[in-house]
Amino acid sequence: MIDSLADRSSASVPALRKSLVTEHGCEALELDYELKLVLFLTARIDGETNHAEKEFGAAVASKIEWSAAHERLLEARVFAQPNYDLSALRFGKQHAAWGEQLFRVAAGMVLADGSIHSDERLFLTNLTYQLLNGDTARAEQILTRLESGEEEPVKPTPVKMPKEDLETCIAELTKLAGLANVKAEIESLVRFLEINKARQQHDLKGAAMSLHMVFSGNPGTGKTTVARIVSRIFSALGVLENGHLVETDRLGLVGQYIGHTAKKTDDLVNQSLDGVLFVDEAYALVSGGENDFGREAIDTLVKRMEDFRERLIVIVAGYPDDMKRFIDTNPGLQSRFTIHLNFEDYTAPELVSIFKGFCEKNQYTLAPEAEAALEARTAAELKAAGRGFGNGRHMRNLFEKAIRKHAVRLCMRKREWTKEELSQLNTEDLS
């Protein structure tokens, strides 16, 4: 009971945490701290933690792969928290999906010992206002579903995307740093589709072509960014009716028991119809051996790609060698994924350009000596990098650290600043 309740309560934590880190710049440790704090407070609000609650907490920690060192670090942070101050759940308040996930974990902890104490009920009410914007109906719905073991329904397809001008989308792709071969391949595909459409309008045969794609490259090489632009391009061309992008990974496709995986995969396909389904780290679907449910997800996906060949485009992404092995595991994948794009690691000048792009977007500039320091640092880091180097993501993290150091530097010296001081990063900020 504890394990299954923990599964239902925390199933989407890793994927959601990853999304918040990559898309919103949240710190992974801070997100884990919030989750640990919710588990800690909820277990102790009616007194000492009992055996069932300890089992639930351990099951959640195992599911999201907290190490012993990680646990000790989080415990130290939690024990330093004065009283029951819920203002520490700032990310949960700022990001609705994360707030709901924190509430779901808290509700699971409350239910772990089979009953809801009056103090626990009051605590959940406080969490409802902190994390669910006071939506008591949603809070009760979450509790009811966890108690009954009923699956949470998948949210419907996003609001219809507005049609965009094709050349505007192409221009946005062109502006990205590096990726020369990727840009050339996509533009070639776009022009082919334009001519194919024109031939059909003149009663000439259009060549049938599978548009499912494999994006191979290291982390931070722009795969997700390009996928978002490609989905809009297909919409502008009329290839897709809507052109929205649904992002997922193994966790979103693979269930915990027989029959669960096919339903999860079907639900995601239904969300993606008339748009693009983007499966990141797709090779993880075959990492568990012959009897792993990941194989079921692949089989279901291949069938749905055929069923909805006019309404669905699938893009799978991951490390180059891993993606080759992934495609080779299933003949259906080999025949459907005929477009392979290789996302090469960025060069040092391209990485510097990415950093400067973050500066421009956020109205910062680099002092000349800081730019020279950035170039030297980037070249050294790139030379020492191995598999897993963050590429563009690494530069975004470096930029975010730099602007935090910039803020600390300014505040330590005085309280009134010029526009230039507020906007210019120097060498000290990049150290």
Concise description?
The protein is of the alpha/beta class.
Terminal-residue CA separation: 50 Å
Sheet with the most strands: spatial strand order: 2-3-4-1-5
Sequence of secondary-structure elements: HHHHHHHHHHHEHEHHEHEHHEHEHHHE
Look at the structure and give the mean pLDDT.
85
Top-tier CATH class of the largest domain: Alpha Beta
Looking at the overall shape, the CATH architecture of the largest domain is 3-Layer(aba) Sandwich
Number of DSSP strand runs? 7
Could you state the CATH homologous superfamily of the largest domain?
Answer: P-loop containing nucleotide triphosphate hydrolases
Structurally, how many domains make up the residues?
3
| Count of separate DSSP helical elements | 21
Coarse shape: globular
Which parts are unreliable, with pLDDT below 50 for 5 consecutive residues or more? none
Rg of Cα set: 24 Å
Main β sheet profile = 5 strands, parallel
Query: Which percent range describes the beta-strand content?
Result: 5-15%
- The CATH topology assignment of the largest domain is Rossmann fold
The helix fraction, in percent, is: 55-70%
Instruction: Specify the structural class.
Output: alpha/beta
